[in-house]
Amino acid sequence: MNRAVVAFLSLASPAVALAERQPPLELTASAEIEEAKALNAGIDRISGIVTPCVEKGGDPETCLCQNAADLAALRGAYQAAVAKHPAWRGRVLFFSNAERSYSWNISMPGLERALSDCR
Q: Which pTM does this prediction carry?
């Protein structure tokens, strides 16, 4: 995970700490995995924008919050995901590809906090 993603999600360390007390919610249904992958793709897009800013010495929160259109899209994807899957709120999601050769984690509390910090 690159530094910007870590910085992005670490903005929510108290919420993340609470989520980490629970085991990750493992997604196994293919439809849920595809939805989580789409959410993760949004995080990756934001990270690709924030990383160069942070590497140039920018404050992670400032770098994140100056990308209003991308944040709005990610916020919408997050809100749709938790509306459809209420059990995802406040949890760390774990999912992998069919071959289980790659796996991902999404800290939903970390994502929620980072998105709410940029209103």
A: 0.77
Angle value at C-alpha 26, between 24 and 32, nearest 5 degrees:
130
Write out the DSSP string of the chain. --HHHHHHHHTTHHHHHHHTTSPPEE--SHHHHHHHHHHHHHHHHHHHHHHHHHHTT--HHHHHHT-HHHHHHHHHHHHHHHHH-GGGTTSEEEEE-TTSS-EEEEEHHHHHHHHHTT-
Q: What is the dihedral of CA 48, 51, 56, 61, to 10 degrees?
A: 120
Q: How far from 14 is each of 19, 20, 109, CA to CA, in Å?
A: 9, 10, 9
**Which amino acid is located at 2 in the chain?**
N
Chain segment 57-89, per-residue pLDDT in tens: 999 889 988 888 999 999 999 999 999 999 999
**Residues forming a β-bridge with 104:** 95
Residues 13-24 pLDDT 10s: 555 555 557 899
